[in-house]
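Task 17 of the worksheet. Students: predict the tertiary structure of the chain below and write it out as structure tokens. Keep your answer in the requested format; marks are given for formatting as well as content.
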Amino acid sequence: MKCMLLHAIQTNLQEILPLRALFLQENNFQIRYNAQHERGWSDSYLIMQNEEKIGYGSVANIDDKKSIFEFYIIPSFRNLAPLAFLELVHASKASFIVCQSNDLLLLSLLFQFGKDINADTVLLEEDFTSSIYIDNVIFRKRNDNDTIFEHRAEPVGTYVLEFNNEVVATGGFLLHYNMPFADLYMEVREDFRRKGFGSFLIQEIKKRCYLAGRVPAARTGLDNIASKATLIKAGFRVAGFMLLGQVRLT
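Model answer:
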């Protein structure tokens, strides 16, 4: 009987792409750290059983912590996932695990091999089509001559809400996520908050997102209750959380 040899070897991004395509098919939701790959901010590892490529792992410095943020094993070899994960930890010398709670494989390994686990971000997905309307508010694309209020949390968006000839909110969507998902964002002028403008803006941006061939998704800080309520009113629902844990090997 042939001895099973399981190990993780560092490789280049191209080598893991066929396996990552399977990962994305299985996990049909927005991947928060998708851009780590295409921007060259992560290290790629193949998981090998003897000479067979049975999975991969991705490791990056996220918030100054060397973290495993993606891990995939082909379903027919998934019983080897815990051992393969340990091989990845040893090969990469990662000290942390960053995990979306809707990524069930990595989630199970986070709870098996992690400690001091905490959440900092709420992930949201499309749920329903809202029908919010506010009198005398115009939704349109931002013009170069628009006077834009100071933004403190988000970038100035592609779209604006105009009220009484003033821009009172801006927003847009980002495209550096796995297809077909896009990440929506917005900011409302402080004196117009808690009046429904944010939800109305997100509702209209969702339409433009679909027209661009993308599925809207969003995220917000765990403690940002107002932002979460705004997104839910505009037709989103909670899809999961971003979790961080320190690797525990004993």
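Marker's comment: Residues 6-121+243-247 form a domain with the Aminopeptidase fold (CATH 3.40.630.30). The CA atoms of residues 36 and 173 lie 18 Å apart.
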